[in-house]
Amino acid sequence: MRQPFEYAQPFYNEVILYLEQKWDRPLTDHERNVLIEGYRFGRMVEAENEITILQD
After folding, report:
1. Burial class (CB in 10 A: 0-12, 13-18, 19+), 11
2. Statement: the pTM of the whole predicted model exceeds 0.90
């Protein structure tokens, strides 16, 4: 399986802050970990799609 890239902490902080403000509460450690993994996977898929578009 492909492995997503690691990103700098500010990228994760931005999406964590977004959800904490939207839900009006701090995220649990588990929620933060799931969110970070989802962010990394989503960015990987997005990058692969962009490469595919550029190759066509």
Report:
1. middle
2. no
Amino acid at 37: E
> Measured between alpha carbons, how far is 20 from 28 in angstroms, rounded to an integer?
10
The confidence score (pLDDT) of residue 5 equals: 79
* CA distance linking residue 30 with residue 37, whole number of Å: 11
Exposure string over 41-53, b if 16+ CB within 10 A, otherwise e: eeeeeeeeeeeee
Which helix (H) or strand (E) segment is 20 a member of? helix 9-23
